[in-house]
Structure to design on (469 residues):
């Protein structure tokens, strides 16, 4: 019989708490701070994703201000608990609100703030490992920064951390300390809640400060360790719209850098907006001012010109999207060309090698392989076959005032310019529709449909009319 591998003692008793109850006054917002989006994703989502990489036994999110909005925005997950802190009397008070869930737990608690989204999972991993190997009451993640404004300062006595002082309560000398508290900690759960109850709100804000635990542990002769992160960007907190923008810029630059490292050309990273989950294939070229959002994937060898916005769409290889297209919820097959100034709306499918030109709008429409709609058209609720030509100014009249109706245009058909196709209607294979025709009945395969009356010319009309001024 084989011996079972020794279980990983490190992770087996790990619990995560994320603080997110605060009002976020400095955001000046009607919304919970942690739901403000950093490059399209709520900031707390980054924290929860990195925390999940630790595979903790439980994740407890402390909510309070706008608790319901926050709770409904975050999906329930196994091991995830919400705890309400009401009123919000500070970070120590917030952690105390989890006593009902964690007071009897043993092992390690990792405490995170919902407003520190850049933190990387491997820093958390290092925190847990350092905490496990040194066995202190607490390990505080710190960083040395150029601008320590707004953060709690790490006050050392010799090598050891003695206490943390908040900016408002700091002496001028303490304010000059450049080592700051990230607000991220590992705690030994044993004795934690008992120590938390010793914290008083004896400070400028009349709040219960979690960092006061450091001094309490020190007084009791319990050791506190620190873990310093080399890149202070990682622990930046977001407290204002300005910081939201700065952190968003960092998140964007990381995403752009990762794509460039994987072989994507980004001509101007400063103006390129690519959200976290977007994938882009090698040798694709992205011009300035492009936005790629949501669950968008773009294949290899594509070229995306300036001013294009693509949301939740799938794009094949060697696709060219010319300037100023808006593409949402669409699928574009390889070798297609789109734009400039095209609008592809949800459930649009552009098949291999098809062409969509200027001022063409498609919605819930399949444009078959090799087909073209080059100028000024509205194609909605339509199924268009292969090698169809849609003339300039073609409109599918899909709405009869009550419901949306389907238009079918079969392979090889030719729709003359300025035609209206009053749905439901089918234009058969290889059929022609003359320019300016209003199609109200099906057109058989191979037929020519015309509806305009015979042209009449009135001789000499212009001369008889009053002269133009
Ligand atoms: C906190 C730390 C500071 C540290 C900084 C790092 C305290 C007192 N100060 O300051 O030392 O340098 O983080 O970013 O902890 N929250 C609650 N309930 C409350 C109050 C806050 O859940 O009653 C939550 C907030 O929603 C937020 C987190 O705790 O997610 C931190 O609170 P915040 O007010 O942003 O603290 P800072 O002033 O940034
Ligand atoms: Ca903060």
């Amino acid at each position: 019989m084989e011996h079972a591998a020794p279980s990983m003692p490190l992770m087996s008793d790990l619990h995560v708490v994320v603080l997110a109850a605060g009002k976020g006054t400095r955001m000046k917002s009607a919304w919970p701070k942690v739901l403000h989006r950093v490059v399209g994703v709520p900031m707390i989502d980054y924290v929860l994703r990195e925390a999940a990489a630790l595979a903790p036994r439980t994740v407890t999110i402390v909510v309070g201000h706008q608790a319901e909005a926050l709770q409904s925005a975050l999906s329930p997950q196994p091991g995830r608990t919400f705890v309400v802190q009401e009123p919000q009397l500070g970070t120590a008070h917030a952690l105390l609100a989890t006593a009902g869930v964690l007071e009897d737990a043993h092992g390690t608690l990792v405490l995170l703030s919902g407003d520190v989204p850049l933190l990387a999972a491997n820093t958390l991993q290092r925190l847990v490992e350092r905490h496990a190997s040194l066995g202190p009451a607490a390990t505080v993640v710190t960083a040395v920064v150029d601008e320590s404004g707004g953060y709690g300062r790490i006050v050392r006595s010799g090598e050891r951390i003695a206490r943390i002082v908040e900016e408002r309560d700091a002496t001028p000398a303490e304010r000059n300390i450049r080592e700051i508290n990230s607000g991220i900690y590992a705690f030994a759960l044993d004795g934690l809640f008992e120590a938390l109850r010793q914290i008083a709100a004896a400070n400028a804000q009349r709040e219960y400060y979690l960092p006061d635990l450091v001094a309490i542990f020190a007084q009791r002769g319990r050791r506190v360790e620190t873990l310093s992160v080399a890149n202070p960007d990682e622990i930046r907190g977001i407290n204002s719209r300005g910081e939201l923008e700065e952190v968003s810029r960092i998140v964007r630059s990381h995403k752009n850098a990762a794509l460039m490292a994987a072989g994507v050309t980004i001509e101007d990273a400063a103006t390129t907006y690519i959200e976290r989950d977007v994938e882009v294939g090698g040798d694709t070229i992205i011009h300035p001012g492009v936005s790629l959002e949501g669950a968008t994937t773009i294949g290899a060898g594509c070229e995306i010109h300036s001013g294009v916005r693509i949301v939740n769409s799938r794009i094949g290889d060697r696709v060219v999207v010319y300037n100023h297209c808006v593409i949402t919820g669409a699928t574009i097959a390889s070798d297609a060309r789109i734009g400039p100034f095209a609008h592809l709306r949800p459930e649009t499918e552009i098949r291999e090698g098809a062409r969509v030109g200027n001022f063409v709008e498609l919605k819930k429409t399949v444009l078959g392989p090799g087909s073209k709609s080059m100028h000024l058209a509205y194609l909605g609720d339509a199924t268009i076959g292969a090698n169809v030509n849609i003339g300039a100014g073609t409109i599918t009249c899909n709405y009869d005032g009550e419901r949306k109706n389907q238009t079918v245009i079969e392979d090889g058909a030719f729709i003359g310019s300025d035609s209206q196709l009053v749905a439901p209607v089918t234009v058969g294979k290889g059929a022609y529709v003359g320019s300016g025709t209003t199609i109200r009945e099906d057109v058989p395969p191979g037929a020519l449909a015309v509806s305009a009356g015979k042209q009449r010319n009135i001789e000499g009309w212009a001369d008889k009319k009053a002269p133009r001024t």
Remarks:
- The pocket of uridine-diphosphate-N-acetylglucosamine (ligand 1) is lined by residues 19-22, 62, 64, 85, 88-91, 93-94, 113-116, 151-152, 164, 166, 180-183, 209-211, 237, 239 (CB under 6 Å).
- The first helix runs from residue 9 to 12.
